[in-house]
Design a protein that fits this description.
The structure is a homodimer.
Chain A (H helix, E strand, L loop, with lengths): L1 E3 L6 E14 L4 E7 L3 E6 L2 E5 L3 H15 L5 E6 L4 H6 L6 E6 L2 H10 L1 H4 L8 E5 L2 H7 L4 E7 L13 H10 E13 L4 H14 L2 E7 L9 E7 L9 H11 L8 H6 L5 H6 L2
Parallel strand pairs in A: 6-7, 6-9, 7-8, 9-10
Antiparallel strand pairs in A: 1-2, 2-3, 3-4, 4-5, 10-12, 11-12
């Protein structure tokens, strides 16, 4: 049997496997499938969110560039991220607190049950503050300030739509400390270039430092998958690689994909992408 | 209607479109499909070879790193490459001669008819010597010497199998001049890691300088797509970027994807790949 991703109307990925669980929550359609090549897979509204086999690429590249480049990350906010992969990588650092605001408790429950290797017990870490709520609303209302904001959300269809607006990015800027940094995913460069382009422009108006990070993730089809890194001060292209390498070794992070050379390499853009975000 | 790639048994890419032409030649099954997102697509034995929409990524990354890093490329051998995309990029350089050895004339004929934008008239360039024959046999028998060998072949199933053997690589080494360089594709890092691993080992025994280049190509699923660059002398990691940038500007290559920063970035490997080729 084949499980198909239905995110894109004219192109799809099929993975051999079978559905283990399906549920329509107040927010979205959740599905867990068991596949041969990618282990258990979480689909939200028909789009692959994470798979046991390749989640480490996405999660490592979402966490380590920011945590290693920021001089002293202590308070981290995660919007979304209910599978726990970001938490797993984050708690390798001596941070003080991680607040996670996930809109759909079912995503956490399903991930704990069917994808336990992704969170690896991180939901029990006492540095975690878990809030089940709308991330955009939380950011608007909280008086807290953070060093790092990680937006680990689905694409801008369904409940995640509000997390791609100008207002949301203004809110992120408000909750970030003067040296703060944000990262968010912005989809496939090839198949979803409009998401990347519009969000890049939106973010560039609010943050003095804006970068595109490119990563190739097997189950996210359509060539390079993009992330936008936005900072109030830190220039990621001019960051000291030797310093990052030193921190990386010292913390003994045991990453499967990430290393500091890959971090810098992933900020280099092909010509047509430079054109796209001009 | 959907066109599916059938290269991998447990994972497949579906593209909306319809078949325009099918033919079984003495060497392989050829198919041309017309798709909405990728223009016309060439399938060989069920595997996507090239599409009008994203072929430039593959062809530019196969040609420019070698042509710009070699100090004076004059004689080039292409094994395969019947769609003409390599020729198009190659003839942007002041080379003396390009010999193309393609086993299946049908691939050239179909490409000229259904994918003319890929070769863009390159088959009429008078620097081209076109030979319809087995590339492995040609390499074994020719007394010619080359600066660069580009192996633009399908995966090691069907007629291309001989182009992945120790004997073939020994032959390539024989036809290369003392400063010569070779490049070949070695499939998806994630889905075809055995191809990359075995070929890397084979090539490393023959060539003093061996590198893996990673590129993300939308229609080649499975994360990073890999190339092996093998040189008799040139160390691609230590090549002078400033010199390459100067040549790149001077030649006014008008690449859509390639630039010298991307060339160096694509040689940086994630941790698990370093492990794989240790």
């Amino acid at each position: 049997m084949w499980c198909y991703e239905t995110l894109h109307p004219d192109i799809k990925l099929g993975i051999k496997g079978k559905s283990l669980y399906k549920k329509k929550t107040a927010h979205q359609n959740c599905q867990i499938s068991k596949t041969k090549d990618f282990g258990n897979v979480l689909f939200l509204d028909g789009a692959i969110q994470t798979t046991e086999a390749d989640e480490y690429i996405y999660h490592e590249m979402l966490v380590h560039p920011l945590l290693l480049t920021h001089p002293k990350p202590e308070n981290v906010l995660i919007v979304g991220g209910g599978d726990g992969g970001v938490l797993r990588e984050l708690f390798k650092y001596p941070i003080k607190e991680a607040i996670m605001v996930e809109i759909d408790r079912t995503v956490i429950d399903l991930s704990k049950k069917y994808l336990p290797k992704i969170s690896k017990g991180s939901f029990r870490d006492n540095r975690l503050g878990l809030i089940i709520d709308d991330g955009a609303k939380y950011i608007k209302e909280t008086p807290k300030k953070f060093d790092i904001v990680i937006v680990d959300s689905p694409d801008p269809v369904g409940p995640a739509n509000a997390l791609f607006s100008k207002k949301f990015y203004q809110g992120v800027s408000k909750v970030l400390k003067p040296n703060g940094v944000m990262i968010r995913q912005t989809g496939s460069v090839f198949l979803q270039s409009e998401i990347l382009k519009s969000n890049y422009r939106r973010i560039k108006k609010i943050f003095p430092q804006t970068f595109i990070q490119l990563v190739s993730i097997p189950t996210y089809i359509g060539g390079f998958f993009s992330f936008i890194i936005a900072a109030k001060k830190i220039n990621f292209l001019k960051a000291k690689k030797s310093k990052i390498k030193k921190k990386y070794s010292k913390l003994n992070l045991k990453t499967k994909y990430y290393n500091p050379d890959i971090q810098f390499a992933s900020l280099q853009l092909p010509n047509n992408l430079k054109e796209l975000v001009k």
